[in-house]
Amino acid sequence: MADLQAKLTELIGRSWQALDSYRSDIVLVGGLATSYYQRHPDFSPPPMSSRVTVDVDVALPDPTRIRGGQTIPAALHAGRLVEHVTTDAAGHPVEVCFQMEEDGIRSRADVHLEFLVPLQGRDAASPGTPQPALIAHALRYVDLLLYKPVAIDDGGLGRIQLPHPTSFIFQKQCIRRDRQAKGKAATDQADVVFTIWGFRRGWDDLADRWKELERANSEWAAWSRRTKEQMGRLYESADAPGSQEVREVFASQPGVTVSAEDIFRVVQAFLARLGT
């Protein structure tokens, strides 16, 4: 894992330096965002660590304006990243990830970067093309992650955009059914609880943003009602599925003794702040 973490650091460094012109467009999403939330001034460390992941998922608008005279693929190539392409039976590209040039292109590297765009009126099986020669996963709920992101200063890398914590929590709940099918629902809930707990001093601000999302888009308002109901069921007690899933995920961390009761109480307190 130490080698993978070193490669992850190198990949992110190369990518963000190469995409300097696009810092206002790209948002680091997925479980890795929880590691960077810890640099946010409103974050207070919870009694557990962020989950370790080497998946680098980056959301961006579709279309994304070409900046600095270079497309995103061209900028990444100049930054010593190459593309691994997965094709369908007819040879058409359906999935593209960027990885370090020393990993080659014959197979997908363990540490790689993928782009996500909102699914907007297209076949869910069709990839997005936010720029020429840039293939991205087109997924529902990515628009939530792109709505008014927050920025942190990473020091060496500079400015990195992350989903607003409310959007992150909201989107993770929206994708639960699909993630259950992929066996990733428990780790998603762990990311949600880590984020809720870490931003506990700012729950009023998170609740205000949640209400803003409901006002901004009628579809988001419908998703919100279902999401809050789902969270209420997942964490209705210490024995409920969400409380137990998250306890099991964090139980693997040395020295961490977060109980299902702790998790239930924190999430219920957050939901009470959100209101109905």
First and last CA, distance:
42 Å
Write down the overall mean pLDDT: 94
Task: Supply Rg.
Answer: 19 Å
Helix content: 40-55%
Report the count of strand segments.
9
Spatial strand sequence of the major β-sheet = 1-2-5-7-6
Number of helices: 11
Features:
17% strand, two-stranded antiparallel ribbon, alpha/beta, 2 domains, 276 residues, globular, 9 strands, 11 helices
Commentary on this structure:
This protein has 276 residues and is of the alpha/beta class. It folds into 2 domains: 1-163, no CATH class; 165-276. It contains 11 helices and 9 strands. The protein has helices spanning 2-18, 33-37, 72-78, 142-146, 165-174, 176-181, 185-198, 203-216, 218-234, 241-251, 260-274; strands spanning 27-29, 55-59, 81-87, 93-100, 112-118, 128-131, 134-139, 150-153, 159-162. The protein has a 5-stranded mixed sheet with strand order 1-2-5-7-6. The protein has a two-stranded antiparallel ribbon with strand order 3-4. A two-stranded antiparallel ribbon has the order 8-9. A hairpin with a 5-residue loop joins strand 8 (150-153) and strand 9 (159-162). Helix 5 runs antiparallel to helix 7, helix 5 (165-174) packs across helix 8 (203-216) and helix 10 (241-251) crosses helix 11. It is globular. The termini are far apart.
